[in-house]
User: Fold this.
Amino acid sequence: MELGGCRLWQTQGQWRRRMVVCQTEQFARLKSALWGLTRKRVPPNFPPAREPNCGVSAQAESWHEVAGHPLGQRRLQSSELIAKKPVVTVSSLRSQAHSAQNGQANATTLMRSIESANRRGRGSQTQTMQNETTGGDEFKPMGAKHGVPRFLPLALGLWLVAGVTRFWIAPQMTQLPADYTEETSYVARGRYRDTPDGAWEKFDLVVRRVDQTLVASTDHAIIQGDTHWTTNTGEVTYESAGIYGVDPRTRTNLSGYGNVQRTGQFLFPPHVRRATYRLWDPFYSGARTATFSHAATLQGLPVYVFNCHVNALDDTPAYAFLRDVPERYRAYSTGTGKAWVEQVSGIVIDFEDTGKSYFGAATGKPAADFYFWSARYTPQTKSAQIQRARSARLRLLTLENWLPSALLLAGLGTLALGLRRRESRRAMPPNPPSTGVLPSPCI
Assistant:
């Protein structure tokens, strides 16, 4: 763009005005008029023609040289500045007057052009400072809306999903299913008689325990539990049955829901602890104690081994089919056993039990033994329990640990990557706005 023979160059996005004084007819006429008014002769070739000087302030040069400023006059030798008085004639006066009028008009036009350029320059500098302060269009965050970077909601969303998974979905998955049903079988042998003075009989036993949910809700489940000990011929040697009210989360017996007021655990809870538990399940008609013994590994699964024992349990309801029970005697049981419990799911993957039952008085004093037994999970039951424990363990570890941890790390990675890309974009030089002006040849 040219203003009065001067060029304004805009380079590299900086609104800097560089005015280059060129040897044109307009400046020649202006200088001639100014020197004529001061009765000084304009030296030929003043100022000397030159290429645009981009290293010096063009504004200072133009005013010093054009207006006859002393700084501009110092460039000239004193011999060139001082000239003899020309011969004054009418024609010369008319020429000087005409030149002065043209010079004043050209000076007025030049001043207006320079003032307009100054106003545009100040506005451009203000815009440039704002762009440099805010980073320009190139420094806006990726996909920013109202100043919120896009990666921040994404990271917060991943963290929110991690929290929901860990503290809401995982506890829901640890509950007993509404259609919970479990059947376990045992290999057992026994020695049995039905009266205090009867003959002993030895035989293999068929032991089967069945748990089945009748009614389920969010805070309790009504479960029917039965355990039947029979001979190969179908003769019943022991029978325990009842209705249990169970907390689906903790597997504890709830008072007020079963046919008997029970306490303790119906099943081992998830994330079983190294502690002592009170068990009251259908394997016995009453409660027994399970004490932590040691940690072990069974079929590749980490387990806790619990020693179970019951002493002088009043087992009369389980032997109510005998002739002398409960009219003449009461039945008591004493037993010991072991339970291998998977640590995360709380599923018993192996179990064994040995014990005896005897007739006794109401005071608990023994009268005669009538039943000895030993029992353990069948290979089929043990294999099925191991598969259930593996599946439950994997599901719980995924929902409680692995998936929330992965989501948390993904959120942190998203946040770090977004901040890094944002900083890298800020470090890049901004692109200058397009003005349609060609770059300066001095660059």
The CA atoms of residues 145 and 153 lie 11 Å apart. The longest helix spans residues 379-427.
